[in-house]
Records
---
Amino acid sequence: MATRTQAREAVIGMLYAYDLGNDHIMQAARSMLEEKKIRHKQQDFAYALLQGVITNLSEIDKHIMPHLKEWDFARLGGIERAVLRLGAYEILYTQTDTPVIINEAIELGKHYGGEENAPRFINGVLDTLSKAYKKAKKDSVAKGNL
């Protein structure tokens, strides 16, 4: 049985393919997950992540960009961009604990990132995004907007 980490790995691959122009990735997602032996609850988990990222892509990118410092989002490696998008989606739209999300993203960065600095970069971006999101959420609650 597949783990959530394996499900996330599959999602990273599909997000990478989507970023390269495979606009029909959602139609192929279930069969791709089956091929990777990701089934049942983990398949539903992976599919929900993929669908969530693609559906909210522009909003996710808006949340990521301010935390890139001097990096240009378009010039990031495709895998790093996919890992950041998945991590940001989970931080912004799911109930998964932030340390778990960031740790999974770091491990994916170590495994798939093109350079040794990718895990540190991913950690820094997701950590600052998480803190900014928590602060904005706290401020919104304090103002009675949530």
Note: The chain has a mean pLDDT of 92.
---
Amino acid sequence: MRAIVLTGPGPAGNLRVQVRPVPEPPPGWVRIRVHAFGLNRSELHLRLGFAENARFPIVPGIEATGVVDLDPDGVLPPGRQVAAMMGGMGRAFDGGYAEYVVVPRAQVIPFRSALPREVLGAVPETLQTAYGSLTTGLDLRAGQTLLIRGGTSALGYAAAALAKDRGATVLATTRQPARLAELAEHGVDHPILDDGAVAARVREIVPDGVHAALELVGTPTLPDTLAATRVHGTVCFAGMLADEWIVKDFYPIAYLPTGVRLTSYSGDATDLPAEVLQRTLDRLADGSLSLGPITPYPLDRIAAAHHDIETGAVSGKVIGVIPDAG
């Protein structure tokens, strides 16, 4: 099989296509023939040397979609459509940037869909994080206001769509003026140009501050996001687009506005109910839901895809697509 192998931390050129043996699944694991895989900030952090407990060389990729190729225990039949994510993929063992991947069965979610493979590949991890952030992280309710800091990321688009579907009013930020229209076209009620300080602009729209805020940029913007949130409101830290996630010399009384709650969200495959994945795929198919733009890349251009993510050249979800052989 062909796989993308990261030889060690460094530039995008360290991601190289190699030919490797097709992996064999031990009991309790499943081999998946990969059709598509999402590219995530997690893999960028791995390549840049930010990841802890990573081994090299490794096939990156914390998610993949495709079909079951082999389940040695006979639980999942060959050809069954599945998504796999997290649980050590691309860190503790080889991940989804390959034509085949072997994963623990607990990390596999079956589904049925005739959507194109690049669309299926865009959904699992982004949906899991957006769904978990809005429910577990924020307990978002109909009629509430939500600020998404980092709105043109894949997670930002997905969170906006799910929040609108829950009946919330959505404010979302972008650093690029040209992308304000993209946010509006995606259904965001109040697109906001982010110059690093948006709390005053948010409070012009929502004088008391938003009920909930999803922080996807990182610690550099977190104090301003907290300042945009009302008393008894909640900020959920779920992303690190700025590659900064440590608050230095954290003094809670000075850092946190009075009465504003700060939570976080980081989930796993078991945190995405199969019925939520299936319902989302069905709604994507009938056109009643969109999770934002998708940019596909073939396997031999994954290094270029990493470069485009790192430089902000693309918005929404970046996907690696593997066609059937022949």
Note: The mean pLDDT is 96.
---
Amino acid sequence: MGLAGCATIHRQPFTETQQAEATIPGVPQARFWADAPGAARLMAPVYAGANGERSMLALSGGSDNGAYGAGLLNGWTKAGTRPEFAVVTGVSTGALIAPFAFLGPDQDATLEQLFTTISAKNIYRNRFPLAIPLSPSIASTKPLARMISEVMTDALIDRIAAEHARGRRLFVGTANLDAQRMVIWNMGAIAASKAPGRYGLFRQVLLASSAIPAFFPPVMIKAQANGREVSEMHVDGGTTAQILTLPDQAIVAGQLPSALNRLHLYMIVNNKLNGEFHLVRPRTVPIASQAISLNLRRSAGSTVALSYLYAKAHGVDFNLSFIDKDYPRSEKSLFDTEMMRTLFAYGRKLGETGTFWAKRPPDKDE
């Protein structure tokens, strides 16, 4: 009973109205709802590259499959064609990659270290079995929180603030469980703020975006509504969307913000988009695992397809990369170091060839 009590989250109830009014103290522009009418405008960068063109990089979720995206970025650098992105977005494992991709090629070594040297013990620690029923999750993510603090230093966050001042934008998605809505966090605005807790908040958001519900504990982020503290519950952004380009509402509305004209869109999906045959063992865990995998893959596929149609209608240069369906399926445990090294090398080799971008989503029979 004592062990279970130690893991319990305590917070005061609040209303939907208070949630709607809640802001982050000292950082009024810290975040916005993904389904808000002005979300696309808030994502538009000021920065423009040569000839007024802009590049946007969107990194998907995928757990340990993030090794693919990390390797691809390393190879892309070696190919010599990687642009400076005006906008970078990340969800789940893509959120952990995003700040380093945003800062540029000098962070490639950090990405390689993160996805080729760690194992499950660096990410989570299973709770004592008797404590699980009264705990917010099966595992604790204290190891992951510690790793994020070690690699995402104050100095790197200050560099992100400097790039934000240049007009570049970095966004990370989380899911607010109470509101049942996706939240887009303006990480550059957080970094550039003078709020005393900006460094801690920056790391908290990264941890929250990777917090798989029930398996990992939610991250409680403190906000204020009319002077009253509101303790918000945030989890993996992949719960609402596996990848973030423009908000769905903006895509459906069919309007492209003027600041995103002449846009090159690069989407890295840290997963397979095509269906693959796998004989499922008739047991609870394999059945649940396969069902969740199917749901996530379909979610990613829908967002990719919608983004493609939007890009085609508005003259956006569409580029997509994902793990090929013929890449061997891993039967190893989550965050297996050798598996991630192999996937990282696969992504890096593709990146070095310079031919890893598809100009349209795969057909279901491709």
Note: The radius of gyration is 20 Å.
